[in-house]
Fold this sequence. Notes:
Layout: H1 2-39, E1 48-52, E2 55-57, E3 62-71, E4 84-97, E5 103-115, E6 120-123, E7 126-129, H2 138-150, E8 154-164, E9 167-168, E10 172-180, E11 183-188, E12 191-198, E13 201-206, E14 210-214, H3 216-229
Parallel strand pairs: 5-8, 7-14
Antiparallel strand pairs: 1-3, 2-3, 3-4, 4-5, 6-7, 8-9, 8-10, 10-11, 11-12, 12-13, 13-14
Amino acid sequence: MNKIIIFFVILLLSLSSLIIFYQEDISAKLSENLNRNLEKDWGKDHPKYIKYNLKVDFLELSISWDKLNILAPVFPEGHFINSIKNIDSSNCILEVSLAFKIKLEAVCEEIRIGFDIYEWELYQNLNISKLHFIKFGYYRNIFEDLYGKQGDHIVTINTNNLYINNTNQGDYRIEYYFQDENSIKININKSDLTIKRQNEGLNIHTTDSDYFFLNSNYFNNTMESESTDD
């Protein structure tokens, strides 16, 4: 029994030594692969990435970058994703914590988000988007893909300067995780909201009210019925 324990101790020390010795080479290779994947053009319905000095640190379990700009994908006219113009971040580091529960925490000096202002119409205590919808099946893919990859891991984003349409909102802390495969819990500066997928679309529940993006089928039917009534 003692010989087996000694064997595993020696094996562990050897592996640790190899990791430490080659960690720069491993980090460089991981950085190269990540940068190559981000540079690949996956088509107009996928986001584009513009980055500068993006690096992986294998030993520290972190990714850092000087700049990372995300250009939103292009969908049919009226799709709510089209309302998001860009998400730009500067001087960031993303760290992975493996204690008890996997947690990803990003800290950025600055984040800038540009988007169109939404218009809402009150209907049975729901604020329904008048001009934007979500493509039928797309919200299902978002939830299934993200939930499949992220599971119940917690993601936290901290920034000293959050700009919304060029207006500085100051310090912000955003944390989100999946409650289950149908709902995401988000905390923004200690205010909770929940995004839940339903057959009709996406429901965004806040402490004050509910907002709703209809899926394209319901949205088109609603528009047609309103034009008929007119």
